[in-house]
Amino acid sequence: MARSWDDVATQLVVERGDALTRYAYLLTGDADDAADLVQDALVRTFGSPRFQLTLPRAEAYVRRAVLNAVIDRSRRDGTWRRVRHLAVAPAPVDVPQDRSDVRIDLMRRIRSLAPRQAACIVLRYYDDLTVDQVARTLGLSSGAVKRYLSDGLRALSSSIEASDGATVGADPNRTEDDHVS
Description:
globular; single chain; 73% helix; mainly alpha; 8 helices; 181 residues; 2 domains; 0% strand; Arc Repressor Mutant, subunit A
């Protein structure tokens, strides 16, 4: 028996609502924005029951709607997005104290990436999806996902190296050939 769209929506919110909100939070860096994005994505996905959805397919639709909203917002608010961190304090993160500063720093760096790079990195390394699963989720080719992952990881690495050099000081004995890939 086919399940109604209402049953699927309810099950999605109950079983995967927290994961969807964490996904949105990793893309936005703001808990309130994340909750709003997930709510809007749920409304867009289930607002007009035109077709039957399975739970995995409904989750993919909602994730895609969240990503599209983040990309649209970044296009609209390009300048504000680049300087917002100067005006807004980071949201509190409920993680063990000894690792929280590292996680906050990494989340900030991920949010500084292009939206598709950030989405690919979040899905691949936080949600532990394969490249093909990320491609299906985002509606991209596997090659495009690999490129976004490569570019995003390179940008993260450069950002980390730049901040390590600025805070710790450069090692005078280190040469360019010493870089480990």
